[in-house]
Amino acid sequence: MFNCPRCGLVRYAREGQKTAKCLRCNYNIQITPEKIRILARVEDVKDAIDIVKAYKARLKS
Ligand SMILES: [Zn+2]
Question: Strands 10-11 and 28-30: what pairing?
Fold first, then answer.
């Protein structure tokens, strides 16, 4: 679980995944701790979706 370094969109990736394309700005995100800010680690994609929802709700308030 991490923010896109360019636009801040919250994305998630599987453990061991090296890159992820941002759905908003199309930026090819390098998934390394030096380049991105990891918000949370999740075991399950369902958990990831819940965390993204919670994170977005928190941004609104
Ligand atoms: Zn982006």
Answer: unpaired
Count the neighbouring beta carbons within 10 Å of the beta carbon of residue 9: 16
Other Cβ atoms closer than 10 A to 42: 18
Place of tokens 């977005």: 56
Mean pLDDT of the chain: 87
Q: What are the pLDDT digits (tens) for 18-42?
A: 999 999 999 999 998 888 888 888 7
Q: How far is the CA of 41 from the centre of ligand 1 (A)?
A: 19
The ranges assigned to domains in the chain are 2-60
Tokens 């896109």: give the residue. Answer: 4
Q: Enumerate residues with CB within 5 Å of ligand 1 (an ion).
A: 4, 6-7, 9, 22, 24-25, 27
